[in-house]
């Protein structure tokens, strides 16, 4: 199963980016999904999660700034990131989880926020 993540880039502090991660329909319709990030020298951390039923949760550091969503018709998950800060700089990974297949990871997309 291949996950296609995109949307990273370089942005100034206060700016916005939207990440996307597309998956096959067979995985998308049953998966719990999430975005993780890993900054240099740090462990990978959960940023936001959305369940197969649509419930969402966020890390405290991004609450009120980031929004996770999914489009069932496009089988794509999104992370809208507003009011970006330099400390948001990291490689962002999409994750899909199903009981049958376990964790599936996208290839990672770099987000760099300049001050």
A few lines on this structure:
With 115 residues, the protein is mainly beta. The chain has one helix at 25-28; strands at residues 4-6, 9-12, 17-22, 32-38, 45-50, 56-58, 66-71, 76-81, 90-98, 102-105, 109-114.
Notes on the structure:
- The protein has 115 residues and is mainly β.
- The protein has 1 helix and 11 strands, in the order βββαββββββββ.
- The strands form 2 sheets. Strands 2, 4, 5, 6, 9, 10 and 11 form a 7-stranded mixed β-sheet that branches.
- The mean pLDDT is 94.
SSE arrangement, N to C:
EEEHEEEEEEEE
Report strand %: over 45%
Question: Count the strands?
Answer: 11
| DSSP helix fraction | under 10%
Radius of gyration: 13 Å
**Overall shape:** globular
Quick tags:
115 residues; 52% strand; mainly beta; 1 helix; 7-stranded mixed beta sheet; globular; 4-stranded antiparallel beta sheet
Sequence-ordered SSE layout with sheet pairings:
Blueprint: E1 4-6, E2 9-12, E3 17-22, H1 25-28, E4 32-38, E5 45-50, E6 56-58, E7 66-71, E8 76-81, E9 90-98, E10 102-105, E11 109-114
Parallel strand pairs: 2-11
Antiparallel strand pairs: 1-3, 3-8, 4-5, 4-9, 5-6, 7-8, 9-10, 9-11
């Amino acid at each position: 199963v291949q996950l296609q993540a995109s949307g990273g880039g370089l942005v100034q502090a206060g700016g916005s980016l939207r990440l996307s991660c597309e998956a096959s329909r067979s995985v998308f319709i049953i998966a719990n999904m999430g975005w993780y990030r890993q900054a240099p020298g740090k462990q990978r951390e959960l940023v936001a999660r959305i369940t197969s039923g649509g419930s969402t949760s966020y890390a405290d550091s991004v609450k009120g700034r980031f929004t996770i969503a999914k489009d069932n018709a496009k089988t794509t998950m999104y992370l809208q990131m507003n009011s970006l800060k330099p400390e948001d700089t990291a490689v962002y990974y999409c994750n899909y989880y199903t009981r049958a297949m376990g964790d599936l990871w996208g290839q990672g997309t770099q987000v760099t926020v300049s001050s």
